[in-house]
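> example.struct
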């Protein structure tokens, strides 16, 4: 579940709307929201929008990559990752006239805790074209508890938007990141730094990974951090 606090003074009008509409990857993405019954995990927060826009800016090729989103909430980020992972290339074999069409599509695993899955699934399947349904899976993941259902180091990218709010989850989140990572895995976390505990998590993260801030959205006050195991420090 995407865990974020209520922000006093922030206009709640957009969060209380039954849907939030965006344009990503050449498609209209319409996310169902449910603030009244489900609270903060069932609305789209700025960190998910900013990270989705960052992925769309380019420089990160998700095609033919294995991607997992943690604490997906409404599913916007995982939906965008799946849409951006769609593509193909043409291979001309040397000395022949044979043309091969090879489809490169991301495999995206969109996760949250069990109570959030039904709502999450409804958004994911409503916004992905049918041909991309096999390339996305919605799966239960409670940090630190369901790791046996995920192969260690199986993912090229790990994505998370506004998932570093509750201090009591920090140790389990770090354990989960370490389990899912290989030395080549890139972690991208977007967040607004609201409290000192948010900085404390970043310090904990830096104790186990190489961490760099790769983007800052001034208008939304959202940071994006890239993390990799210490042996890999190169930027994109």
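> example.seq
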């Amino acid at each position: 579940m995407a865990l974020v606090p209520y922000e006093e003074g922030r206009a709640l009008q957009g969060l209380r709307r039954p849907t939030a509409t965006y344009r990503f990857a050449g498609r209209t993405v319409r996310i169902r929201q449910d603030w009244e019954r489900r609270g903060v995990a069932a609305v789209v927060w700025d960190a998910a929008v900013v990270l989705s826009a960052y992925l769309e800016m380019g420089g990160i090729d998700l095609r033919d990559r294995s991607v997992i989103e943690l604490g997906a909430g409404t599913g916007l980020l995982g939906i965008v990752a799946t849409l951006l992972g769609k593509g193909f290339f043409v291979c001309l074999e040397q000395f022949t006239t044979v043309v091969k069409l090879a489809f490169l599509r991301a495999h995206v695993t969109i996760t949250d805790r069990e109570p959030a899955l039904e709502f999450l699934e409804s958004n994911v399947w409503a916004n992905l074209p049918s041909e991309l349904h096999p390339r996305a899976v919605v799966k239960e993941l409670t940090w630190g508890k369901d790791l046996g259902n995920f192969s260690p180091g199986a993912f090229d990218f790990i994505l998370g938007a506004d998932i570093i709010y509750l201090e009591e989850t920090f140790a389990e989140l770090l354990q989960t990141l370490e389990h899912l990572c290989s030395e080549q895995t890139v972690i991208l976390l977007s967040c607004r730094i609201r409290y000192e505990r948010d900085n404390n998590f970043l310090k904990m993260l830096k104790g186990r990974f190489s961490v760099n801030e790769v983007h800052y959205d001034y208008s939304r006050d959202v940071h994006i951090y890239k993390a990799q195991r210490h042996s890999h420090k190169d930027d994109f």
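> remarks
Helices lie at 13-16, 35-38, 46-56, 76-84, 117-127, 170-180, 196-206.
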